[in-house]
Amino acid sequence: MITAGITGGIGSGKSVVTRIFRLLGIPVYDSDAEAKNLYEKNPEITARIFREISPDVEDKNGRLDRKKLAGIVFTDPELLVKLNRIVHPYVKKDYENWRKDQSSVYVIREAAILFESGLYKDCKMIISVYAPVELRIQRVRERDRRTRAEVEGIIASQMTDEERILKSDFVIRNDETQLIIPQVLSIHEKILEIAATEDQHSETVK
User: What is the pLDDT of residues 145-195, one digit of tens each?
Assistant: First the structure.
């Protein structure tokens, strides 16, 4: 089973793209969403965050205040690296367990920091979703009710679009100048072709 990675900066529209892949029957593991779920399900993670990042991100009910956490780590690169080192081993294990339950030709692993976290190493190919920075800022402000400064801080903490594109095998432009569905369908067909070629090679080796 092939793993394809999907990445892109905040507001690029990764969720729109993965929704189309799901409609095509391709399972998608959303690393960012699952990390948030793990915060709730695994007290060991939150305890380490309170201890190693800041006790100030614990709310009055003893839960993680994700908004406070974001405000801290996206203004301090060292703390962001530390947070990723805490969380990503748990996400990696969760992904591996999820993948074992899938039976499709390929699966997709979505992550905003696919390259920065090293998760790209487990992917056969990488798809980057691109949108201009101003459009991304507009989308996130409307979606999350964040200030412009908050969104710019998150963007500054992530890899640039140029770096992502150079490291990727496919690029989907979600900048409102091109239709997304034909782009996704084209990539989907190419991945199926690659998977079929690998299957033939495996049979030949046997």
Answer: 888 998 998 898 889 999 999 999 999 999 989 999 999 999 999 999 998
Strands 106-110 and 2-7: parallel
Q: Please give the residue range of the domain that contains residue 48.
A: 2-205
Say which residue the tokens 């239709």 belong to: 179
Number of domains in the chain: 1
Q: Look at 37-41, 135-139, 171-175, 202-206 and tell me which has the smallest mean pLDDT.
A: 202-206
Angle at 109 between CA 105 and CA 114, to 5 degrees: 140
pLDDT in tens, 64-106: 888 889 888 888 888 988 998 899 889 989 999 999 999 999 9
Question: Phi/psi zone of residue 159: left (φ > 0), alpha (ψ -120 to 50 degrees), beta?
Answer: beta
Task: Report helix, strand or coil for 11.
Answer: coil
- For 172, the token pair is 């989907």
Residue 197: CB atoms within 10 Å: 10
Q: What is the CATH number of the domain that holds 130?
A: 3.40.50.300
